[in-house]
Each structure stands twice: as structure tokens, then as C-alpha cells.
TrEMBL record:
<dbReference type="GO" id="GO:0006004">
    <property type="term" value="P:fucose metabolic process"/>
</dbReference>
<dbReference type="InterPro" id="IPR024709">
    <property type="entry name" value="FucosylTrfase_pln"/>
</dbReference>
<protein>
    <recommendedName>
        <fullName>O-fucosyltransferase family protein</fullName>
    </recommendedName>
</protein>
<feature type="transmembrane region" description="Helical">
    <location>
        <begin position="28"/>
        <end position="52"/>
    </location>
</feature>
<comment type="similarity">
    <text>Belongs to the glycosyltransferase GT106 family.</text>
</comment>
<keyword id="KW-0119">Carbohydrate metabolism</keyword>
<keyword id="KW-0472">Membrane</keyword>
<dbReference type="GO" id="GO:0016020">
    <property type="term" value="C:membrane"/>
</dbReference>
<dbReference type="InterPro" id="IPR019378">
    <property type="entry name" value="GDP-Fuc_O-FucTrfase"/>
</dbReference>
<keyword id="KW-0325">Glycoprotein</keyword>
<keyword id="KW-0808">Transferase</keyword>
<dbReference type="GO" id="GO:0016757">
    <property type="term" value="F:glycosyltransferase activity"/>
</dbReference>
<keyword id="KW-0812">Transmembrane</keyword>
<keyword id="KW-0328">Glycosyltransferase</keyword>
<keyword id="KW-0735">Signal-anchor</keyword>
<dbReference type="GO" id="GO:0009507">
    <property type="term" value="C:chloroplast"/>
</dbReference>
<comment type="pathway">
    <text>Glycan metabolism.</text>
</comment>
Amino acid sequence: MDVGFENGGGQMVKISGQLTQRSRLQVWFIRVCSTIVVWTCLVHIVAVGELWQPKLLRSYSNRINDQGRLSIQAEKTILPLPPLAPSRNYTSNGFLKVSCNGGLNQMRAAICDMVTVARFLDLTLVVPELDKTSFWADPSDFEDIFDVQHFINSLRNEIRIVKRLPKRFSRKYGFQPLIMPPVSWSTEKYYLEQILPLFSKHKVIHFNRTDTRLANNGIPLDLQRLRCRVNFQALKFTPRIEALGDKLVHILRGKGPFVALHLRYEMDMLAFSGCTHGCTNEEADELKRMRYAFPWWREKEIVSEERRSQGLCPLTPEEVALVLRAMDFDENTQIYIASGEIYGGQKRLATLRAMFPHIVKKETLLDPEELKQFQNHSSQMAALDFMVSVASNIFVPSYDGNMAKLVEGHRRYLGFKKTIRLDRKPVVELIDLHQNGTLSWAEFSGATKMVLEKRNGQPNDRRNISQKPKEEDYFYANPQECFSNDI
């Protein structure tokens, strides 16, 4: 069909249907080309964005989708990780291989120490081996708990880290490294004078014990800050641990403020310490048999009540309940139990639960399928408890073990978040006086508050006792050199 219109002179001009169709095709063609150009530009923008910062658009999208999601990752990086610097140029004096011993937090501190030793001896560090022979028999490797690539990359301006020894240093080729434990609580001088000369002969040294092998004090400031950098920035949990730990914190915060109670009333702790207060005779015998079964637990004959009166026993769940109530925590307090299996099971938690009904654990907050991947991996379970404890409104440990100390140090680093450190010696004295009728409840409560008044994680100098490092304040509980943006 033809279409016509009048021109300026009043004459009719006809345009064929074929011309109209051609015009439509031209419009369609222009639209297609425009779309292609727009998408091409977008692709280039994304590509450039990936070069500038990987997953930039995806991260932005995630921030929108996760609006309102509570994550403790922001808390853990209160002092932002500086941009990666060029690798430090040094000639390696040899390879340092380490086998960490103990539980998760003991090994964590040891890793920080060994990085620092490798740094001032100019060594190449092999990614640490984790303990698989302790009481917990956890088969986890380093990369099962920590993000190994992040660990290597974030420290590349300090030391060279490799995942394994070069083949020429393997046992397969007949190479035998020097295997030894360094001396505990040693300073830089010991390593420089006693250990470094050994590398000229052996090339590879394997430290088969790493706990407390670096002194609390007397270490140069730059090395102390390196320990901080490893602890707070380089040792990042794997994404799956981070994700589930964040989920736990999100669930807890959704119900309001919460207390993380590190209740160290577990079978291994009681057997190791010989503390049987509140246990039946059968339970006390069982704990003693366990103590004798582990030859590296050197102290065998232990008088439990003497140990308790000296403040060397973890508080029982019943004692913890009394202390929390004396500190004015009420029955509405949400308490997360950060621990393994409580010795004696639910019956030992009965008094605590009666006073504080809102008690939860990771096993009650998560679907069993979510925890299935961590079963029989105590260190990975401990990592979840560590994350929740660091993020809690208040942290209360019933014993000053490695986890209690490292969590306290993290909370100090995050702005001196409240940690109630129970001074067990006077606390158990007060509990006994209250229970035998000497102290009224009001007197007991007032005295308990007075004892714990200055034990809330406030800023204070680390105690330095020359020649008695075991009696000093532990570096990782109060890493005062870390409280600066310069680390």
C-alpha cells in the first residue's frame, strides 16, 4: 500500500510500502547497534574494574543483597591491612620447618612466633604443620583452618613462605633435617647466637615444638608488631569457617546482646589439671586414669582441693553461675557456651541453666548438617567458638588457658571490648564463705564485684618479671605494642 502527503506546493507525494519497510529496518538496525555498543562498553567497564579491584561489582552487589547482615569481619580488621608491598629482598639463610603442638590457639600463637623468628633470621618458612597427635587427634592441616594463600601473600613483604620444601631437601632423596625444640621464652639473642649458626651446616631445621618459644618481653618493637600483624591480619580463617562463624554471630545478635562463656570444664582440662571438685568418685578416678595415660602430662599425683584453693582449677558450671549472678547478670541474659563437650553432660549444666535459661551452643543454633563438615575436627570447631567469643558483647572465660588469652588479646585490639577475667583464687574463697553461711548474698555479691572491678580488659601495661617469664602477663593476652595503626 502507498502512503501520500502534500508537499509545500500542494502536490501529493507518494511513498511506497517498500520504502516504509526499509525505514523500519534501519530503525531496528540502529537499535541493535546501539545495544551492542552499550553492552560492549559495560563489558569493558567490568574488565577494567576487575583489573583495579577483583570482584568489584560483585562485592557491591553483595553489599546490597546482604544489607543488614551482621558480620564480625569488620571488627577483626579494625586496623586495615595495608596494601601489599614489594617482596623484601633478602638472601635466605635456610629453611625453617615447624610442627606446632597443642590446641588451636596454642598453635596460633606459635605460628606468630615462628614467622617472627624466620623474619629476623632471614629464613624461608615452610607453611606450619599442625598437631595431629594431641588429646583431640584433629587431622586438620593448616589450609583446613587458615586461608593459606592469604597468609603467604599478606606477609610477602616480610618473609618468604613456601608450601613445601624443595625436592632436594626431602627424605626421599636422603636428606635429613636437624630436628630440635628451641628453648622456651627465648629472646632474639638466643636465636641469633645459638640457632642461626646451625643453618650454615644443616640448611633445614625442623622445630618439633613451638609453644612459648619466644619471650613475652625484651623483643624489639618492630618484631613485636610483626607478631601482631600475623595474629590479627595474616591468620584468617578459611571462607567456610568465616561464613559459618558469621552466621552464628548474626543469629545471636538477632536475639540481642550476648555473653560468650568459655566454660573450660572439659574432660582433658580436668584430667590435665587434676581438678575434680564437684565430681563423683567414679569421675575422679576416670580423670586420674586419663592423666596417667598421657606421658607428656608430667604431673601425676595432684590434690584437687589444694589446686583449687590456689586458683589453678577452672571454675565449675555451678561456680560460674554464682559469679555471674553476683555480677548482676539476670535470668534474661543470653549466654553462648564456647567449649567442647562439658564433662558430666547436661546434668553439670543444670544449675547454670536454672539461673540462666537462655543458654545456647553452636550445636543448638545451627542445623546438624551445617556442622557435619566440622565433626571430628576440634580445631575447626574451636575456630567457630573463637569467632563468636571475639564478637560477643562480653567475654567470660572460666580458666585462663590459651583460648581465653588470645580472645582477650583480640578484644583489646578491637577497642578494649569487655572481658571479665575471673581471679579464681579469691573468687573460690568467696564462694566457699557464701556457701558455708559466713557471707550473705549481698556481701558475697559486693565482694565479688570488688575483686573483679579492675579485671575487665581495660588498658594496662603488660607485667614484666625479669627471669620469670612464666609469671609474666602473656604477650598475646595483652599485646600492647599492637595498639597502633603502624603494625
